[in-house]
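subagent[fold] <- orchestrator: predict structure for attached chain, return tokens only, no commentary.
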Amino acid sequence: MPLDPSPLIRPVCAEDDLTRITALIHAAYAPHAAQGLRYWGTHQTVEDTAKRFAMGIGLVMLEGDDYVGTATLRRPQPESAVVLYRDPQVWSLSQFCIAPSAKGKGYGKLLHTHLLDAARQAGATTLALDTAQPATALIAMYASWGYRVVGECDWRPFTNYPSVVMAQPL
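subagent[fold] -> orchestrator:
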């Protein structure tokens, strides 16, 4: 019987190698950096990776022993500058990425489906995210997954671009 080729998605744990995960995040965000977009993921430190995972439910996707994806599912954020993120029924997605070597395998959609299920189980009625306004390919991908642009936000000076806020009902 052949082995299941599906990657494993699980919560981040103390044994995870945050240096390798941070390198994955940098590699995944490198094309955005090449376009001049300064996402936090283009330059975050290992400590930043740990802090960002701790802001919610940090997840990793593994193919064998290789990290091939990450995401953080964030609970409602009463102190957020983004009004939608303050809503007690809205959970948000951050630090979502797939390793360049794993692109084209459907892993992004698989990880996203896992996030949708986890948000529903937690009682969320909406899943939201924000991304760079100039990142038209990302915006189109999220739109194909059911998200719609519902607003804007601006994280400058931490980034160098305005962002769109996108959401989808669960």
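orchestrator: received. Logging for downstream: The CA atoms of residues 20 and 66 lie 9 Å apart. The first helix runs from residue 18 to 34.
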